Amino acid sequence: MTDFRRIGGRIGAEYTGTDPNELPFDEVNDALLAHKVLVFRGAGLDDEGQLRFAARFGELTRAHPTVPSVDGQPDILPVNGEEGIRSNNWHTDVTFVRTPPKLSTLRALVVPPYGGNTLIANSAAAYRDLPEQLRDFADRLWAVHTNDYDYAVPRSNTDKALEYRKVFTARRYETAHPVVRVHPETGERGLFIGGFAQKIVGLSGTESRDILRLLQRYVTRPENIVRVAWNPGDLVLFDNRITQHYAPDDYGDLPRTLHRVTVAGDAPVGVDGETSYIIQGDDAGHYTPAAAATAAA
Q1: For residue 81, what pLDDT band results from cuts at 50, 70 and 90?
Q2: What are the pLDDT digits (tens) for 202-220?
Q3: Angle between helices 205-219 and 132-139 (to 10 degrees)
Q4: Of the residues 35, 98, 189, 245, which is catalytic?
Q5: DSSP characters over 82-106
Q6: Which of helix, strand or coil describes residue 240?
Q7: Among the options 86, 91, 183, 241, which is catalytic?
Q8: Is 64 exposed, middle or buried (0-12, 13-18, 19+ CB in 10 A)?
Q9: Annotated catalytic residue 91
């Protein structure tokens, strides 16, 4: 039995030792479903090893619907901590499309000597924390997720930052997802919101912001969060269906580079059994493999 050590009371476990590609898949998947986040210390993988590891969980997406990949690696997104374009907002990866990634992997290449951690939150624990009346209310809500909002607004007016904003919103997506998503493997309910969720269906902007802020505060309670302090070579795997994450902008002008590979997912399903639907844009077929998109339809 693979020895995963818990690193948080409600979320997270880590493993040090064998190449994660050599671990029994069922044990890794069971640990992921239980802990939501797995940290493989000193995994020592290269790009091909990371791709091979992620592919054990299903078909891979391309790097991103709008942002370019690593040169020569169409399924790997470079996560560079350049000042002005850091995404220090709580979010779940790529929820502005109908079929967001199932899982995400991050691998550390260059990390600063201080700061530059990644915070990951358990949205199932957040849902369980809600008072019963608020859970019943959230169960009935749907939210519009979009890539055209200030997640991608540059923190400075440099040419590079402005170009990043232009690229990020080159294709505009709006998708309605259930605020409470039922996990397809465990049946757990989790708050499926985060930074890309900008409006509650049927409510005004002001009402939507108030409700989303209220629910989001439960997600980001300290007891629901694990903080990953990176070392070069570390690999992190998290369940994108039931977590949010955040990269604090606390390392000045120091370099920080990670590589991200994501596994294709299905369309979220709400408590009522209804699936997510597109409001604006397409099905992101250039990003999500056709087989995955068809299975989600």
Answers
A1: confident
A2: 999 999 999 999 999 999 9
A3: 120
A4: 245
A5: -TT----S-B-TTTTSSS--SEEEE
A6: coil
A7: 91
A8: buried
A9: yes
**Would residue 35 show up in a list of annotated catalytic residues for this protein?**
no
Mean pLDDT of 236-242: 98
CB neighbourhood size of 272 (10 A): 11
Confidence of residue 154 (pLDDT cuts 50, 70, 90): low
3-state secondary structure of 207: helix
Choose the weakest-confidence range: 15-19, 114-118, 124-128, 143-147.
15-19
Q: Are 262 and 54 in contact (CB under 8 A)?
A: yes
For the chain, state the CA radius of gyration: 18
Residue type, 63: A
**Residue 170 tokens, joined:** 């080159």
Task: Judge whether 99 and 296 are in contact, CB under 8 Å.
Answer: yes
- Report the mean per-residue pLDDT for the chain: 92
* Mean pLDDT for the stretch of residues 54-71: 95
| Measured distance CA(55)–CA(61) in Å, rounded | 10
Catalytic residue, chosen from 10, 260, 266, 283, is 260
Indicate if 213 belongs to the active site.
no
Cα separation of 269 and 74, whole Å?
29
Q: Which residues of 283-292 are buried (b: 16+ CB within 10 A; e: fewer)?
A: bbeebbbeeb
Q: Are 193 and 241 in contact (CB under 8 A)?
A: no
Helix, strand, or coil (residue 126)? helix
For residue 149, what is the DSSP state?
A: S
Which of the pair, 296 or 101, is modelled with greater confidence? Answer: 101
From the list 10, 75, 86, 93, the catalytic residue is 93
283 catalytic residue (yes or no): no
Contact by Cβ (8 Å): 39, 15: yes
